[in-house]
Batch of 4 targets.
Target 1
Amino acid sequence: MEEENIHHANHGYPLHGGRICSVFLSKIVKGPMKTGDLVRPSIIFFFLLIGAFISLHWIDVVPLAISDISLQKTIPSFNSSVVINCSITCPIHSSKTIKLDESPSSELCPEYFRWIYQDLNPWKEKGITKEMVESAGSEAYMRIVVVNGKVYWKKLKRAFQTRDVFNIWGILQLLRLYPGKLPDLDIMFECGDRPVIQKRDYGGSNANNVTPMFHYCASDSTLDIVFPDWSFWGWPELHIKPWEALSKDLEEGNQRVKWIDRIPYAHWKGGPGSSLARKALLKCNLTDQQDWGALIYALNWGLVRQEMYKSTDLANQCTHRYKIYVEGRAWSVSEKYILACDSMSLLVTPHYYDFFSRSLLPSIHYWPIKENDICRSIKSAVNWGNKHPEKVQEIGKAGSKFIQEELKMKSVYDYMFHLLYQYGKLLKYKPTVPEGSVEVCLETMACSGTELEKTFKMNSMVSGPSDTSPCTMPPPYDPTTLQSFLERKANLTKQVERWEASENT
Ligand SMILES: *[C@@H]1O[C@H](CO)[C@@H](O)[C@H](O)[C@H]1NC(C)=O
Ligand SMILES: *[C@@H]1O[C@H](CO)[C@@H](O)[C@H](O)[C@H]1NC(C)=O
Ligand SMILES: *[C@@H]1O[C@H](CO)[C@@H](O)[C@H](O)[C@H]1NC(C)=O
Ligand SMILES: *[C@@H]1O[C@H](CO)[C@@H](O)[C@H](O)[C@H]1NC(C)=O
């Protein structure tokens, strides 16, 4: 990601332990932020950013609260019964063995876990060799190796903001939740926006010797293995809280304005420049001359930054009956926030999917919008919706229910668990600690970074080993069920088109 690197070079993001930046910025920021201050700014900033999260190619986000590396010796976690000793070395723990004989959980994993099998399909027959992993070459941002329950991080490239740090933090939590249950692992991770493993480079669908690359999203023409993105543990640069707390806020926020009292327009707010679809969307805005049923707001990042410091009085973000989701450079982490609003989500034809989005269905969880005719398509959706408020509320609720119930942190961890477990079983070699890597653990990671980073890490720390097993995997798709799932999705889209057509005649 060349652009990203330029941004780093020019603006010196205070990454994890960036001492020089921290010193510089501490002159701007009055003092370190206290935990109690977090709530409001994060909500406020969140409103400003809905729809804008990916394609962070705006140059100058300055994190709110930057402070130097903590000099504290220990920090209490959110749950104060757990205290982290910032000794900066990892404790010596006995090596863990895999427990295979445990009875499986009676709880069935959500349907979207079935895509794990699809994602690992290229290696199903022959497994994964070290050569395949190492063929990731310069595309990977980091290599994560787990040997006997210990995690090693080899940084290969500088990731944007703290993406890599928070992703590893998530993996450490997974190991804390399910200690001794994962096999040894050797993972290449790509932390940019777009997937990189092109199907066409490996001979299409009968792909051979594919590089296994973990990434936040993929598309129909790529073979990246999708993995939950960093935002589930927090996005400090944007003040987006860890998902566990944020999803609760959203649930509460939904109570504030009933659907029927919401503005009968489709709403989008975000950074407009990052995709053609976003540029096209700007033209759908309400003016004296036109009414496409859409209110579109382009974010001015300078202003956002200012408001971050000042404004305290923004209303709930779920104030419109329809919320538009449109991709930027690739998938956007905003999708879960938009869907969680109880408003009907209007999804402009997505080209990328993350780990859960392939199971979302048109007319059940969202309303599809044609990307090549965005304004007219939004207008049809809004017209139809305002005439069929019950159906629209049902779709809005189903989308939110999917997010609130199937995307709980427990499911996110279980997804990571099953994916990594199966991936580990495919490895044809015993992973070893690569040269140039460092061991990472709660102790080394929790105590560095800005105050906000540390707070988010503490707030997203799991309190200890789970007393239940991971959920039980649903069976893989056989070709027929997969085909019929895709057909159902296509049928549902046609159904929406029929509804819209009947409205226009
Ligand atoms: C933190 O760890 C260090 C080194 O292991 C140890 O000497 C020290 O007593 C610990 N501090 C606390 C408060 O537990
Ligand atoms: C869209 O219209 C609203 C209301 O008139 C306005 O506040 C907003 O700035 C417009 N958005 C863009 C991108 O021009
Ligand atoms: C804090 O952690 C303890 C021990 O893991 C647990 O029993 C307790 O329920 C947790 N409390 C909260 C408020 O999460
Ligand atoms: C999709 O629609 C076609 C034609 O209406 C129908 O024959 C088929 O059974 C439907 N498939 C699914 C999976 O719903």
Target 2
Amino acid sequence: MTARAPGQPPDGRLRQAAAIPPTTGADVPPLSVQELVVRFGGLTAVDRVSFTVRPGTVHALIGPNGAGKSSCFNAITGIYRAAAGRVMLGERDLTRTPAHRMAGLGIGRAFQNLALSPRSTVLDNVLLGRHALGRGGFLATGLRLPWVVRGERRHAARAAEICDFLGIARHLHRPAGGLPYGDQKRVDIARALAVEPTVLMLDEPAAGMNAAETAEMARTIRDVRDALGISVLLVEHDMGLVMGIADRVTVLDFGRLIADDTPQAVQRDPEVIRAYLGADDESSSREEGPA
Ligand SMILES: Nc1ncnc2c1ncn2[C@@H]1O[C@H](COP(=O)(O)OP(=O)(O)OP(=O)(O)O)[C@@H](O)[C@H]1O
Ligand SMILES: [Mg+2]
């Protein structure tokens, strides 16, 4: 991220950010989704959707229940196979890349349903993210060769820095499963950041949070963008959070893209309003926590 030096923190919260140097040495590439199609049997969950996550922006993917957000997200991250279309990270075609290789290519992903190892410490959970960077090798690791030990120390130091940045350093040596929910979400984000991504993908980071926790999560996401200069692709139901932090918003409805614009323009878009009003009867199930 040479091109995009982090700006001054807006509210002084980011004093810790000094401890976390730029995530990668490279410029952040755009993530471009091109005519993406995801099918489940006869159902087209994502229907020729195209949008671009511009470098260093928070890009939200929204839409009523069943609109295809998670399907799109999962196809980008290699969990689902796209029936057609392409996903490009800069010049690199990610379309057929399996999920486990995404981290090494600069895609860091936090999960909607926490996938932490509850008995392991916060540090160990975050270190799992570092493994994607692949060092050492089986034999060298087994023999605990000096460069492996040095590497491990470096990884642990970096993991601790990331936790500090996210405000969870005080929990470093506690079992992740015992932390308050909001902090567990942060551990998951820390793990995603530990792969030094150029794009951080978050599926409903505020699901199950109260208003104060949601506001705090919004600040965290903004901090990640501002301090690291990386892109964030965010699937989220909480409109307050989305409209408050997104630079751009893509709206899906029944698998189709119906809007792709600034938050202000999207909020005024008649088709978006219709899609959300039309889905009003489902709003109670939506609040329970979507898939
Ligand atoms: N694994 C699956 N198998 C079959 N159908 C699926 C699968 N996942 C999603 N679908 C269907 O695809 C459509 C899009 O679902 P998806 O979960 O992507 O929507 P969403 O926008 O994430 O919704 P929500 O807001 O409820 O999370 C829905 O009709 C859903 O029932
Ligand atoms: Mg979903």
Target 3
Amino acid sequence: MPILEKLVQPGQARRWTDSIPLEYHYTAGVAGEEFRRELRDNGRFLVSKCSKCKSTYIPARMYCPSCFIEMKDQFPMDKPGYIYSFTSVNQDRSGTETDSPMTVGLVKFEGVKGGIVHFLDVDPDQVSIGMKVTPSLKNSSERTGAITDIRAFKPVSTGPSRVSVESEKVERQVVGAGENPARLLLRSIEESGYPIEEDEMTISSLRSKISRGELLTREEDKLLHRLGDKAREWRKAVKTSSETEPGDTLSG
Ligand SMILES: [Zn+2]
């Protein structure tokens, strides 16, 4: 039936089932392509920095979402990431049960906005929020510029690094093995020393829900992570001020 012809009787409508073969290509965009090229050629992550608000983003992107201006500064980043959140996955993309659960996490980098979601090559009993991780990459000859050039993120093995000794110590005390991420995050907020007064109501409702083992809603989860960020910032600020000579500190 030609496309402009109209049905005059509803009874003329017919349906049939078949499939249409479609192929499509996903384009990563200008900055996305540069990110992938840097990953493939040099095994590094490219980040973009906004000249106005000084925010740095991973993966590299063309525009600052806060200032709406083009970000021309891009540079590779070498610092390790940390696990911001993680979960266990029992099915692959087609919904087929996998032989063993896979651990997937959101890896963020100190002082950088955004992050990378990827597999974690960490023993499920050992994985914890805040754990320092580094990418495990395919050999350069095997890399194609795909995100799968990263095999997984694995724990930083070379002992506690200079910058992380302090926070690592705190995190180690805070986290236990095999506990649920929300509970760990809540505890790290409570133990950070961050003054929770203004968020006390929110925290206590989250706390009772988590202690009952209930799942948080998307909104609550977001809230918890926002508080986690505040606590993290707080801990960093406390650490920085304790390292600063009194003379360096601005009064008022
Ligand atoms: Zn900006």
Target 4
Amino acid sequence: MATLPVYRWRLAPDGYATRRQLRALGLRPGGQDVAAQLERPRRRRGPLVAYLYRVDRAKPVRPMTPARMAALEAAMRARRTCPNCRRDAGYCIPRSLGMCVPCSDSFTDAA
Ligand SMILES: [Zn+2]
């Protein structure tokens, strides 16, 4: 870490980006080590430091695969399915009711 190149704020060389900048590009550091750091001097306090990563070593943010998409949809469908009438309510079943609204209403009426 002591041998990291240090650049002045706004004078970062091309090809380097902070984690946030990578994220904006749809990239992530991808396990690479910090490649350089930026320092912005501040009065009376230590400099503000930002860590830079190499853009060419960054990896794309993990894409949504069909399998992940299917798992997500199944989970959402389960949350929308009323445990009482087994219908897809079209919305997430409220935890407080534990069933869809029509079922909950019919229970209330019966009581
Ligand atoms: Zn129901």
